[in-house]
Amino acid sequence: MLAEPLGRRLGMKIQTRYNCIVPVPLHRSRRRERGYNQAALIARGIAGVIGTPVEEEGLVRLRSTGHQAKLHRGERMRNLAGAFGVKSPTPPWSGRSVLLVDDVLTTGTTAAAAAGVLWRSGACQVDLAVLAVSTKPAKANVQNAP
Question: By three-state DSSP, how is residue 74 classified?
Answer without folding.
Answer: helix
